[in-house]
Design goal:
Order of helices and strands: HEEHEHEH
Largest sheet: 4 strands, mixed
Number of helices: 4
Distance between the termini: 31 Å
Oligomer: single chain
Length: 120
């Protein structure tokens, strides 16, 4: 199901869920906001599966994320592996906030599990 921006904003405010999925013809975009932790892991997993099963490149927007716990990081790591199997690109748009990079390292990752998209 594709979300439109105005509907996504309403959904975010109504449900309090800090994760949204926007899909277009060319790609999917998952936006993470605030703290992404075990409480939002089910929603993150569902949206990652939905986005990857669409067969389009997936971009993650972490601009407004302030923390990702180990559960969220593991889900992203698995999503990268699945994307490779499906031949789909998964990248971070707009860079990774320092606090998120540090959270990944503190959780035992050598680096953030999703590559940053190349900029021109």
């Amino acid at each position: 199901m594709a979300c439109v921006s105005s509907g996504t904003e309403w959904l975010r405010k109504k449900s309090g869920v800090p994760i949204t999925l926007d899909q277009s013809e060319a790609q999917s975009l998952i936006q993470l906001e605030g703290e992404i932790n075990i409480a939002s892991a089910t929603e993150l997993k569902q949206l990652l599966v939905q986005a990857l099963s669409a067969g389009k490149d997936l971009r993650l927007d972490l601009e407004h994320a302030i923390d990702l716990d180990v559960t969220a990081l593991q889900l992203l790591w698995v999503a990268v592996r699945e994307a490779k199997k499906l031949g789909v690109a998964i990248t971070v748009a707009r860079g990774i906030p320092d606090v998120i990079s540090h959270a990944a390292i503190d959780s035992g990752f050598e680096r953030f599990p999703v590559p940053v998209e190349a900029t021109l």
